[in-house]
Amino acid sequence: MPDRQDGRLTEAELGAGQALAERPAGLRSHEDLLAENGGLVPWCGPATLALASGLPYRAASTMLRGIAPDWYPGDGPVVTAYWRDILGALEQMGVAHAPVELPERRPSLLGLVREGLAPGWYLLRVTDHFLLLNNQGFGLAAVHDNRLTAAVLTAKTHGRRRVTHAARLAGGPRLRF
Fold first, then answer.
1. Of the candidates 4, 58, 60, 123, which lies 20 to 30 Å from 12 by C-alpha distance?
2. Neighbours of 149 (CB within 10 A)
3. How many structural domains is the chain composed of?
4. Closest CA to 63 of 34, 86, 35
5. Looking at residue 43, which CATH number applies to its domain?
6. Residue 175 above 90 pLDDT?
7. Which of 35, 42, 36, 6 is nearest to 21 (CA)?
8. Of 2-6, 53-57, 101-105, 172-176, the least confident
């Protein structure tokens, strides 16, 4: 798929899991996080914190341990992260974010995007998963997490999962801490 000079897509149709061309230069990929984690697939909580903050993957895990030492193991991988701790880490690093009000009946991720979520970057907690979402507008969004980089949001890329928590990243993700 050829790109225009300004980096925008020239074709309207993208297949499931296919990358959007508008990944900001410098934003790490899931493959970068895989390499940072010694070739092991990183866990979604620390991976999302690393992508949003610009921290290395292991530093994101260490930061979560520092935020809530009683909730995380002293060493080894941080397998389960908590929304409050990820937001606390972002606050501690000065990454601007604001909560997004969600309806009482939690929408699917696809439904939220298609029903008027404003364009921009979001940190999301969906059913059993954390991710970053770059909402382009007009129902088109890209998913960034521990297994996907700038993948078009579809039913196969977490679109059917229910959104339980959402925060808008005012300045987008930090590229490097």
1. 123
2. 20
3. 1
4. 86
5. 3.90.70.10
6. no
7. 6
8. 2-6
